Amino acid sequence: MRKQSKVFKLTFGAMFVALTSIGANMTSIAPFLVVGGVPITLQTFFAVLAGLVLGSRLGAFSMFVYMMLGLVGAPVFAQFKGGIGMILSPTFGFILSFILVAYVAGKIREMNSSLPSYIVAALVAMAINYIFGTNWMYAAYQLWFEAPAEFSYKVAWLWMIVPLPKDILLSILAGVFAYRLEKHGIIIRNIVIEQRT
Question: What is the distance between the alpha carbons of residues 69 and 102, in angstroms, rounded to a whole number?
């Protein structure tokens, strides 16, 4: 039973690695999702969902695997990019934050499993993604990447206005979806237990 549980957990973890990879490259299916040269992706949505569905530890681990998969060269990052050089990319902070995003979302959900808690967990996790990622981007442009003309900290945050409404909406949807999935999971587990007794 314990072995079966581990197999299910690893399977779900691998599934979220795959989903995040797909979410990173939505622009290959819908090119109009590139705004001002910046691809609008579903990575944050799946990172949040990973934490809510898998829990803090497994959710964070699945995002760590996703990041490492990209760094070893698999084209799983936005626009099918990958490789160790991505560490120097201005947007790598967003990828790195997915580990913390999943962990925090899972941790909040583990403390309270009500619907409002799921939604709050998703929104807090999304905010972490924005804060960590935007500050990394600003630092990258200031320290090791050639900054665009008239680039400033304010401009860095103004760039984030474009994907913000989408990410707020998707984070709320992630919270609602994960909550319903958990409730259905509890019902299914109870049915299985009743059938065995």
Answer: 17
CA distance linking residue 63 with residue 18, whole number of Å: 10
CB 106 within 8 A of CB 115: no
Residues in the chain predicted with pLDDT less than 70, given as ranges, are 1-5, 27, 30-40, 186-197
Rounded to whole angstroms, the Cα distance separating 58 from 102 reads 9
Q: Are 52 and 103 in contact (CB under 8 A)?
A: no
pLDDT at 197: 47
Q: What was the pLDDT predicted at 83?
A: 95
Predicted pLDDT at 186: 59
3-state secondary structure of 74: coil
Instruction: Reduce the DSSP state of residue 77 to 3 states and report it.
Output: strand
CA–CA–CA angle 78, 20, 92 (5° rounding): 45
Supply the pTM of this predicted model: 0.85
Domains of the chain: 2-196 (1.10.1760.20)
SS3 breakdown of the chain: % helix, strand, coil, rounded to 5?
80, 5, 20
Q: How many Cα atoms sit within 13 Å of 21 on the Cβ side?
A: 22
